[in-house]
Design goal:
heterodimer, A: mainly alpha, 12 helices, B: mainly beta, 2 domains, 25-stranded parallel β-sheet, 4 helices, 39% strand, transmembrane (chain A), transmembrane helix (chain A), ABC transporter permease (chain A), membrane (chain A)
Chain lengths: 255, 406
């Protein structure tokens, strides 16, 4: 298993797209952190990158990589290896290399130039999102046999999580604005990893505003130690379930 | 002849200064009975249970070595009913608590020129309570109660129907309201610190022409609230860390012809909340990392908000209607994205400090959970290009490009 992970990571790290992704992240975060004199503003822009660009790149890159590596995977299946191990190794290799890219591109500059707790939280959230979206990508590509369809599903799921879902929530919040929505809002936030990550960072970044009205409910839930833990456990579940499903599917799949 | 008269008068001067100095042996009360107007009563260190000390003649009561006057949680500790009294250097503790009487650590009833200086008040119901008094000085006192444990709690420094008061350098904490004024005029409130009170740090009504300078109001449950007054002059105060659903750095309700200058607003849920205010000048203040730097309701008119710095606030300005009768020109906003072609230091593109989402969140607070999401940023951008919901008139026509030196 270690060997497969090593091969996958080395293969991806030599990939030009991943290298340019790392450089892009590095340049953007350096520019934001060095050129703006206002720390909050830089963090906000980086938050936007973490919430939008990161999931998109993770999911698309992982999907394309999986399809391109299908021959390699078929070859591995012919060997006396367990299928679970094969898929797991490919997934870990993928997630690991994307994590390396993120840590070099955003993590290191953030720690050097900011180093606040908010920055650390942002890095943790970014790492979680990278892992979650590559898991989703693996699930999508295991289910879809056709490459074009697989990429379509990947783009659509990114679109859903980063835009459609929020639109839907906004719509619901307006439709049911006459009712107390604090608790349903907490639940809705937990059902989308991007929202979950955003709320975790938001509670630190805009703590003053979040203490007003509904915010107090969020703050008391997600802001407490127990709530923080709950949020991270939820993120872990988000990492876990797509992978488990993908593994089960892959074990029974006719390649 | 004139010389002779002056010399005789000069000889007579010491007659006036025949005041005696008394030192308390056992009871402050009995010593006070013996003392005459103008005398000095020195109270050495110790604990005195006076069961309600009444000072009814103009004496200088001085505590040496912080003597303790204890009210045994039953009595009003000190009641001053004579003018020209000075009370200095005491620890006053354990006043009575009552549901129907305002028992206090030190109460001033209908007096003038009384000085309360450098005392420490501990676990009193009301701290220093002044009624119908004028020209009194309350300076350097430390008031500490335990209001957090009690449903019933009193105010720290409470003034009712007073004039020309001077409150300087006092520290008030864990009372209901730190400083409470009702019908207090022409007074100076300077260098006080009021924090962690269970309601307001400062609370006044119908108190005209007062000056508030260099005070600090921090971490009070509901911030600071001031109402129905005119000629209020506030300078160099600090309002910080007042967070919660109903907490304001400062709430201005029905305030007219007043000034708010050079103050700092930091980490409050709402920095300044204005309702029904008229002709208030908000100048040279710093608003930093507040939830809402300002909430200016549509009922406000002719206010001028200028030369302020706005940094890192979640929302800069929010309002509840489309009517805007206030002026927001010439501030620095860190969210401003315009340019300055003629290099005069002021942006060429107007800045609209009210964002769409501030309006939306005002009507439906639950949507705050979506703040900073892609969807919301998109909506905000669209609104900036084509304003439909946000008030078009709430605009800074010439915002500063760089932060002002404040």
């Amino acid at each position: 298993m270690k060997k497969i992970i090593k091969y996958v990571v080395l293969d991806i790290l030599r990939n030009r797209i991943l290298v340019s992704y790392t450089v892009l992240l590095l340049v953007v975060s350096m520019l934001l952190l060095c050129l703006t004199d206002n720390g909050t503003k830089a963090l906000l822009s980086l938050l936007n990158i973490v919430l939008i660009v990161l999931p998109l790149v993770s999911i698309i890159f992982s999907t394309i990589y999986y399809y391109n590596a299908s021959a390699f995977i078929e070859l591995l299946v012919c060997q006396p290896l367990r299928r679970t191990k094969i898929l797991l190794s490919v997934y870990v290799g993928l997630a690991l290399s994307l994590l390396i890219a993120f840590c070099v591109g955003v993590g290191v500059p953030l720690l050097i130039f900011d180093g606040s707790i908010t920055a650390v939280l942002l890095i943790v959230v970014g790492m979680a999102l990278t892992v979650i979206f590559s898991a989703l990508a693996i699930l999508g590509s295991v289910i879809m046999r056709d490459k074009a369809r697989g990429i379509g599903v990947a783009i659509l799921s990114w679109f859903y999580f980063s835009l459609l879902y929020d639109g839907l929530v906004l719509f619901l919040l307006f439709q049911f604005s006459d009712y107390p929505l604090e608790k349903p809002a907490v639940v809705m936030g937990a059902l989308n990893p991007i929202d979950l990550g955003r709320i975790i960072v938001l509670l630190r970044l805009d703590s003053a505003a979040m203490m007003g009205y509904t915010g107090a409910v969020f703050a008391s839930f997600f802001g407490s130690v127990g709530g923080m833990l709950t949020a991270f456990v939820l993120l872990l579940i988000w990492m876990g379930w797509p992978l488990c499903w993908a593994l089960r599917r892959f074990n029974r799949k006719d390649l | 002849m004139e010389r002779a008269i002056s010399i005789i008068l000069l000889w007579l001067l010491p007659l006036h200064a025949w005041a005696r100095v008394w030192t308390v042996k056992a009871s402050v009360k009995t010593t006070l009975q013996q003392a005459a107007t103008g005398d000095t009563v020195i109270v050495p260190a110790g604990v005195y249970y006076e069961k309600g000390l009444v000072i009814d003649k103009a004496v200088y009561l001085k505590g040496v070595g912080k003597p303790v006057l204890d009210g045994e949680s039953k009595y009003e500790v000190v009641l001053i009913l004579a003018s020209h009294v000075t009370l200095e250097g005491f620890v006053i503790r354990h006043s009575g608590f009552s549901d129907w009487k305002d028992l206090a650590g030190i109460k001033l009833g209908n007096v003038r020129h009384v000085t309360i200086k450098n005392n420490i008040l501990e676990e009193t119901f009301f701290g220093i309570y002044c009624q119908q008094s004028d020209s009194c000085v309350i300076a350097g006192n430390i008031l500490r109660s335990n209001a957090s444990q009690r449903v019933q709690s009193g105010n720290g420094i409470h003034c009712w129907h007073c004039d020309n008061m001077q409150l300087t350098g006092n520290t008030v904490t864990q009372h209901r309201d730190g400083i409470y004024f009702e019908f207090v005029t022409n007074s100076l409130i300077k260098g006080n610190r009021s924090f962690r009170n269970v309601r307001y740090g400062l609370h006044f009504m119908f108190s005209h022409n007062d000056h508030y300078e260099d005070n600090i109001f921090e971490h009070n449950e509901a911030g600071v609230s001031v109402m129905f007054s005119h000629g209020v002059d506030m300078k160099r105060n600090r309002f910080a860390g007042n967070q919660g659903g109903g907490a304001y750095g400062i709430l201005l309700k029905e305030i007219t012809d007043s000034r708010m200058e050079q103050s700092h607003f930091e980490d409050n849920t709402v920095g300044i909340y204005m309702e029904g205010t008229t002709r208030v000048q908000v100048t040279a203040n710093v608003f930093k990392t507040n939830g809402w730097a300002m909430k200016v309701q549509a009922s406000c008119s002719e206010n001028r908000i200028t030369h302020n710095n706005f940094f890192g606030n979640t929302f800069d300005v929010a309002t509840n209607g489309s009517l805007v009768l206030n002026n927001f020109d010439n501030n620095y906003w860190d969210k401003y994205e315009g340019y300055d072609l003629n290099r005069d230091g002021k942006g060429d593109v107007p800045y609209h400090p009210v964002s769409l989402y501030a309006m939306v969140a005002d009507k439906n607070p639950a949507v705050m959970m979506l703040y900073h999401s892609f969807m919301v940023s998109l909506l905000d951008r669209t609104e900036k290009v084509m304003p439909g919901i946000t008030p078009v008139n709430l605009v800074d026509r010439a915002p500063f490009m760089k932060p002002l030196a404040l």
